[in-house]
Amino acid sequence: MAPAEGARIRARGWSWRHAGRLRPAVSELDLDVAPGERILLLGASGAGKSTLLAGLAGVLGGDDEGDATGELTVDGAHPADRRGRVGLVLQDPDSQVVLARVGDDVAFGPENLGVPREEIWRRVAESLEAVGLELPLDASTSALSGGQKQRLALAGALAMRPGLLLLDEPTANLDPQGVEEVRDAVGRVVASTGATLVVVEHRVSVWLPFVDRVVVLAAGGGVLADGPPSNVLAAQGAALREAGVWVPGVEPLRPRRSGASPGDLLLSAEKLSVGRRSGSAVARGIDARVAAGRLLGIAGPNGAGKSTLALTLAGLLAPVDGRLLAHPALAGDAGPTPSRWRSRQLLTRIGTVFQDPEHQFLASTVRAELAVGPRALGLGPDEESARVDGLLDRLRLDHLAGANPFTLSGGEKRRLSVATVLASRPRLLVLDEPTFGQDARTWRELVALLAALLDEGSAVVAVTHDADFLDALADDVLRIGAGDTAEVRP
Known about the structure:
It contains 14 helices and 18 strands. The chain is an alpha/beta fold.
């Protein structure tokens, strides 16, 4: 890829507060980044990392969405005046898919920058190859998995040849092989173009070989640590662990499970085939059993059908073929076929957390969002408040009770999406990437909460690439290979 001059970043006392929030998302930030530097941006969930990236990309919004103070510039100008110099990959890749076909979507950015047509399509091919997305240019973007959309978003950013590349958890939805491929692709692009890189990633070890500086945002404002990676980790290791940073070499604390025998059988699948369209299967031959007090993990490469299987087990998609049976301990009087249950019947039986948490938000405040389920169940005000207040406290969302769910950080949105399901106390939880966007501290708290639910007799099905999560909680792991049948391994 052709060389480009890296962008310069400067912040002086910069703060941003979302409308309706009491505390600024970023407060009193002073920062200088030279052209071509490669920065790993760390901090606890909610410390303002995503907000800073959005500010640098010039996409924070107008006065009605929040207010800024201080100075934040890219190449000496307001970021909104430098958008052609900046490529941003968001936590949620769905929000960056613009067009219906893969090639057109990658071409969208350079086309808007006025790049000649022949050069656009050369860039499209190079960018798709760089991120390992081997699909026809006319492939439908709506048919891509979450991990494939993540690669697509990165390809679209690379095709713009940005002087500043901003990546917000770019590998969070990728399988282990995909993590290495995308990380290596970013490293090659940055090395060949000279672009400045700022990457947000909770798992520090992934990016350490590719960055020359680590900046840690303090939860209360300002910078907690800043310097060469080895110096920051050596001098500030304890403080970083306390702040929730995943410090390399420090194993996550795992909760103790009671070790009780499996309870009632709740759900079973026999020779199950699943797909989003009738007659079109993305995974076949699935045999699985879900029992009370047990966690079934679903793992496998991107595009293998894991999320589609989860939606089918949750009763939100009908099987393409085979049999999915809800047993009496789960079904009660609702019948044995979850896809035929009404929404009220699902509410207390199966709760689903989607891969994209925003797809399930309905209310204008966090508190109101948590009250949706209890209110639908007809609970009284006292019981509703008790459930909502308890979840706000347990998942560190109490200070956000009045905030709009869509203004939360990615990690906060994920915890809220889990909490909305827990508020209805279903017998079975189906979770798609439940630990996405979590720092080490909130990861421990979320895992401990799920462990307690399992010990109390709930069942969990979890789609995840998080090996630590599976090691901590999974009783069985269903591994799906792309185009192959599934295999259950204890």
